[in-house]
Amino acid sequence: MLDFPEKLLKGYHVFMNTRLVQERERYKQLAYEGQKPETMVIACCDSRAAPETIFDTDPGEIFVMRNVANLVPPFHPDKEYHATSAALEFAVQSLKVKNIVVLGHARCGGIRSALDLDGKPLSSVDFIGKWMGLLTPAAEAVATNTLMTSSERQTALERISIRYSINNLRTFPWIKRREDQGKLALHGAWFDIATGELWIMDRRTGDFIRADD
Amino acid sequence: MLDFPEKLLKGYHVFMNTRLVQERERYKQLAYEGQKPETMVIACCDSRAAPETIFDTDPGEIFVMRNVANLVPPFHPDKEYHATSAALEFAVQSLKVKNIVVLGHARCGGIRSALDLDGKPLSSVDFIGKWMGLLTPAAEAVATNTLMTSSERQTALERISIRYSINNLRTFPWIKRREDQGKLALHGAWFDIATGELWIMDRRTGDFIRADD
Amino acid sequence: MLDFPEKLLKGYHVFMNTRLVQERERYKQLAYEGQKPETMVIACCDSRAAPETIFDTDPGEIFVMRNVANLVPPFHPDKEYHATSAALEFAVQSLKVKNIVVLGHARCGGIRSALDLDGKPLSSVDFIGKWMGLLTPAAEAVATNTLMTSSERQTALERISIRYSINNLRTFPWIKRREDQGKLALHGAWFDIATGELWIMDRRTGDFIRADD
Amino acid sequence: MLDFPEKLLKGYHVFMNTRLVQERERYKQLAYEGQKPETMVIACCDSRAAPETIFDTDPGEIFVMRNVANLVPPFHPDKEYHATSAALEFAVQSLKVKNIVVLGHARCGGIRSALDLDGKPLSSVDFIGKWMGLLTPAAEAVATNTLMTSSERQTALERISIRYSINNLRTFPWIKRREDQGKLALHGAWFDIATGELWIMDRRTGDFIRADD
Q1: Neighboring chains of A (3 or more beta-carbon pairs < 8 A)
Q2: DSSP D90
Q3: Domain co-membership, B113 together with B83
Q4: Cα separation, C58 vs C52, whole angstroms
Q5: Which residue segment(s) compose the domain that C19 sits in?
């Protein structure tokens, strides 16, 4: 109907006839009581790395911001609007989430473009270039190490960027404060699309360790 | 392990032992061939309105950007980084998606705060205020109409904001061009959390019509 | 007896009463007919990464050279004796092995010392420093990338060093010739001590891929 | 996969499904705590004389250097890299092993070539000739004794070379010192491939005595 993408409409009908049937009460309750997610997930737009799928979550469970390459820019108070900072402010100051998870993933197109130091911009304005420019110093440090394979450099920068975003989270005063008070924990994770494996960041060392080990 | 949120780890193990088992080949293929989603969904961070759940999608099917209130700011080329514009550029110019769906939903906290003209900011910087400020003219027009109930005003602005974002999409020259060429279609949808109903925007009139009617 | 290490003597008696009983004929045959291993393995001295254990090999199956960090120095014909080059010459020119496998491993002490650019030598002569000095250019490229964790740098250099050794194998004219003739194949592998996983090098890309994937 | 030698991959899968299953915890511990072998074994590359097999050792038990004919060159401090000396330095100065075992064996190809005074070199550079040249004075004394059979000459030189290597170990000042302090013991052993018998060197006399006598 209304030329809405056929595939999505079919999917919605599956949802309506299966999950919604079982969870109608839950949805009703979530509508009237409001959402109370304990965790915010910052994820990539990539179609292969949806946090709801990977974490098999129920409605109401995770508050999810998604942008290219799951980046958190540093705290930058000015007169402009900031999609990412606004989502963080809402999650932390209003919903008072207890966890923020930065979820990266393998074969990230944004990370790949950051490593392609001589790449052509996708448009004359080059929004992707400016966005991934947040990672430029890290990307240069990785891209110039030609002893690593391109795939190794990609994985390295994907993980560096997760740690970078977590560090940037701490530049937001109200995140830092809540973390210091033990009310908020910051986590990193990396999803390997090819194998479906989840790697969790060790918060002391920054290393990524397979979740099922 | 590593004090990662218990609930998410359990969910990941469910994913690993169920969906991943069935879709291992698909994930492998998606990894090696890259993602080729036909549709980009612009959705809200709200924990109750995940597009993958509502549209029952498979991995690789939809490219998903999520911010507070599923807003698309107008095309604004400057020296700053723009999370939303970067995601649009990647989806349209690199992935060449055929559809963009702006997916709003009922009881949106961002929309509520936009309507609350005297509300206190969540922080001294007021990132949410600036972000929802994109809707200020529309919000003022709706908020001052006291003949509508507060619930009607909320739904009204939710739908207005979807049309606003779709109009802003057309301010991006490469989106306008592809739409004019018939290569890209822009859609709106609104999810009613309380009932689980999906309302689709009629592209000619801008009205929202229940999907199962 | 004779104050030989007790543990080894006990182990020998286990061997004598179990494996040797089953394989006495094989040992006899191997003695009279000589060894005909099809594969040479270049491995590290590390006590946790014995190729016979990891590959569950039978007597006579693999010809094994082991030095610190499984390094192959470049072809360097002079008047000096060269342990590694001599072993290569024997394996390729006399035994005519069909495969050479460079087997690295996680948490390699030699690699760690190569990355420790300011480390103190173990002796005034610093044999380890000179030996690992073969990797100095690679070690510097990796060690200076402080955006990677120390564990990530370690893994990176372990894998770089395997590729380095394989490249050096090709500097030996009789290895290059046999490889070009399709009579000899050069392989890389990396053993993860913590998990027992073996990662195999993709010979086209140099990437390491888990053996059970 | 990836054309890695089939036999080794099969062997790895046996390892993975048997030994690794039983020793997973041990491997994990060895990874996180590091290796602490009490004994270094200097063995030959020969495919029939793997110390892990002969001594039925567990992972982490012995630090193993292997070169052609299990030779230790004399202490020779210069600007060059030395594979064998580096391994010794690491074992003694860093791991502080309590025992060094030089493990020779019957029918050693390296020893045979040392005795073949008129043999042709395997390559124009003759790496094996230079390496076995360490034994030339001993080889000449044995080779010219035509009253012994060729098999007796072979065994004689195999045992002489073990004592030669043990003497050379004492030319390393930090080995000599630790031996004098009673912190390090130097041992010899000889493995008879045809019978599977181990012969232990009597440290007072230098004689070899069957281990099970």
Answers
A1: B, C
A2: I
A3: yes
A4: 8
A5: 1-34
d(CA A184, CA A169): 11
- Across the interface, of A8, A30, A127, the residue whose CB is closest to B55 is A8
Q: Structurally, how many domains does chain C consist of?
A: 2
Question: What is the CB neighbour count within 10 angstroms for residue C147?
Answer: 20
Block mean pLDDT (10 aa), chain B, length 213:
86 95 94 96 97 96 98 92 95 97 96 90 92 93 91 95 97 97 97 95 94 73
C134, C148, C163: best mutation site toward chain A, by most A Cβ within 10 Å? Answer: C148
Residue of A134, A148, A158 to mutate, testing the C interface (most C Cβ within 10 Å of its Cβ): A148
Amino acid at site B130: K
Least Cα distance to A70 among B64, D134, C88 occurs for: B64
With contacts defined as CB-CB under 8 Å, which chain A residues touch B38?
Answer: 5, 7
Annotated binding site of A: 44, 46, 105, 108
Same domain as A42, residue A8 = no
Q: How far apart are CA A130 and CA A145, in angstroms?
A: 23
Three-class secondary structure of residue B134 per DSSP: helix
Does one domain contain both B198 and B98?
yes
Check CB contact under 8 Å for A7 and B38: yes
Residues C192, C93 share a domain:
yes
Are residues B15 and B109 both part of a single domain?
A: no
* In a shared domain, residues A82 and A21: no
pLDDT tens, D109-160? 999 999 988 889 999 999 999 999 999 999 999 999 989 999 999 999 999 9
Residue C165 belongs to a domain with what CATH number? 3.40.1050.10
Q: For residue A188, is pLDDT > 90?
A: yes
Residues C198 and C127 in one domain: yes
B45 is in an annotated binding site: no
Q: Are residues D10 and D75 in the same domain?
A: no
pLDDT at A175: 98
Q: What pLDDT does C213 receive?
A: 59
